[in-house]
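Workshop exercise sheet. Pairs work together: one partner reads the sequence aloud, the other fills in the structure field after running the prediction. Swap roles for the next sheet.
Pair: D.N. / O.F.
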Amino acid sequence: MKRNVGMLILFLLLGWLVGAWIATALEPVQSLSFLTASKVIKWSPQADLNIISYDFTIQMKLCLLSLLSMIISVWLYRKL
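Structure field:
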């Protein structure tokens, strides 16, 4: 069975999304704060070329729970 890279990326994104939703739901629980604490990674390329300018921002929010869910999603992908 040939593996599809697009499907792997889809599994990773869905795992990240599910992990973020679970982390948001568990934020009020103080004893699980180590799982729900987020770190923001931000990248903002910009340029002004006199006739055109752009400002583009990519921001990713990662927490331990979302990373764990991404690992589970890769495991599920490999099981298929």
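Discussion prompt: Strands lie at 38-43, 46-48, 53-55, 58-63. What would you look at next?
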